[in-house]
Amino acid sequence: MKKKIMYAGFALSLMGLAILSSCKKDSSVAGTTKVQIRMTDAPGAFDQINLSVKEIILFSDGKPYTFTAQPDIFNILDFRIGTSKPDILVASGEIPSGDITEIRLVLNDENTIVVDGVSQPLTTPSGQSSGWKVKLTENPSLIPDVSYSLLLDFDAAKSIVKTGNGKYLLKPVVRGITVANSGLISGTIMPVDAHPEVLVINGQDTVGTVADAITGKYTVGGLAAGTYSVKYVPVTGYRDSTVTNVSVVLGQNTDLGTMTLTQ
């Protein structure tokens, strides 16, 4: 995609912890989707719950894709919706678009809990190498060129189990919520020999692409919700044309249909 000015805008907290992540891709799947995975907390009566996330596995159309998380330990109780730190970014990457059917949270062994000022290990039951299944509020369909945040809501009160000898076990109870962070504008330009540049404009921000030389189709993704103008700038011999008041909704494709340019 040719871009004159990149439009910046995810709906949820792109300013956050910078994380090196990796994601396995399947090049046979048409279209990819950018995903951020964030965590927040439903409070519990503890001083700290320090988690070390190893990886998060997303199953798209039944195939697993692994996102490597930051290895540093963080106190999940520091991140609560409605506060100045509503969540923490734990991983990000790009996967083939499709239906998310399952999410698994895989932890390292360095988890700890602090109760009444005393820190002790927070152990997980054996046999959890495949991770903990996240309960999804829905099975989202990830659309190509739309960015999403997957918010993992960690329930501290339900996730910690105190044993008879005063130790603590970690059995994560996590709810997954999907939020679309951007939308699309698409359409078709005729005649194809106009070879137009397509400019999507919102105020001082412009994103550009070109129509396919054979089909005349175009798609501009990664757009924040709002109202745009779409300007078609063809090669010499055809007139510019502009469509105004184009509404973009997060997670949806605004299809402008076929635009026929005149000479």
Automatic annotation (TrEMBL):
PROSITE patterns, A to Z: PROKAR_LIPOPROTEIN
UniProt keyword annotations, A-Z: Signal
Domain DUF4382: 32-172
UniProt-listed InterPro entries: DUF4382 (IPR025491)
Signal peptide (from-to): 1-18
Name the UniProt record assigns to this protein: DUF4382 domain-containing protein
Organism: Pelobium manganitolerans
